[in-house]
Design a protein that fits this description.
Elements lengths: L1 H5 L2 H30 L4 H6 L9 H6 L1 H10 L3 E4 L3 E3 L3 E3 L2 E6 L3 E2 L4 E3 H23 L3 E6 L25 E9 L4 E3 H4 L4 H14 L5 E3 L11 E4 L5 E2 L1
Parallel strand pairs: 5-7, 10-12
Antiparallel strand pairs: 1-4, 2-3, 4-6, 7-8, 8-9, 8-11, 10-11
Helix pairs in contact: 5-6, 6-8
The structure holds zinc ion.
Zinc ion (ZN) binds next to strand 8.
Length: about 240
């Protein structure tokens, strides 16, 4: 074929090179499009879509109630906005929520900061439910509160007048549990109760320490002989 004979060799090479570049470019473009469509996003974005309820995000929830409520809803639970409370110079709260749908029923309506509600849901779902099955062989049907989350008062058992996290609805007091068969387990009696009650109550206390900043049980002092106190203060205590 004479016709190929007259095409200068450099020209053929250039043509081939151009085709290779074009094919390579198209392939790279397709790869980028594919990565944008289905590729794994950076870790932070992965946390946001779909909104996930994770212990690691609780700190961010303290300052972003919208993200907190969305994460709770995304995990299948529900909160309702609670009216702000102004109560003197040292007490009250803003942007609190009522936990209207949690992993368990509660003995009374529960209004807390959204971050505390999120921590509570995580504790119920990931600690209380498996601990009940493991140590008691049945589910918890109701969590019994040992008083309202909000209370304008100093920290119990201290004389320095520092205000409790309850004064800003950033704390929860758990008095006990009702089981599926109707049995009640109170912190006060169960702490030194049967081996399974003792194991269950210590498991839910220990598991709370990974979700809340401060966890106080009957082991801590007499002021907590009848309830577990959880809060999200800047301090860390697990006792
Ligand atoms: Zn308390």
């Amino acid at each position: 074929m004479r016709i190929f004979g007259i095409i200068p060799p450099p020209s053929r090479e250039e043509h081939l090179r151009a085709r290779i570049w074009a094919a390579g470019g198209l392939a790279a473009l397709a790869l980028i499009m594919l990565m944008l469509l289905i590729g794994s996003p950076p870790p932070e974005e992965a946390d946001l879509a779909p909104p996930a309820l994770r212990t690691a995000r609780l700190a961010a929830f303290q300052s972003d109630v919208g993200a907190c409520r969305a994460a709770i809803a995304g995990a299948g639970y529900a909160t309702a906005p609670a009216p702000d409370v102004r109560d003197g110079r040292r007490c009250g709260y803003e942007n609190a929520v009522e936990l209207t749908q949690s992993a368990h029923a509660y003995s009374a309506p529960l209004v807390t900061t959204c971050a505390a509600a999120a921590a509570l849901i995580l504790w119920e779902r990931d600690v209380v439910a498996p601990a009940a099955e493991r140590h008691l062989g049945q589910a918890v049907s109701r969590i019994v509160l040992a008083g309202p989350a909000y209370s304008c008062r100093p920290i119990a058992g201290r004389g320095d007048g520092r205000m409790s996290e309850h004064a800003s609805a950033n704390a929860v007091d758990i008095g006990g549990f009702t089981l599926a068969d109707g049995t009640s387990i109170s912190v006060e009696r169960g702490w030194r109760g049967t081996p399974s009650e003792r194991a269950f109550l210590r498991a839910v206390r220990d598991g709370a320490c990974d979700r809340f900043a401060v966890v106080l049980s009957p082991d801590y002092n007499r002021a907590h002989r009848d309830h577990l106190h959880f809060d999200l203060s800047p301090y860390e205590v697990c006792d």
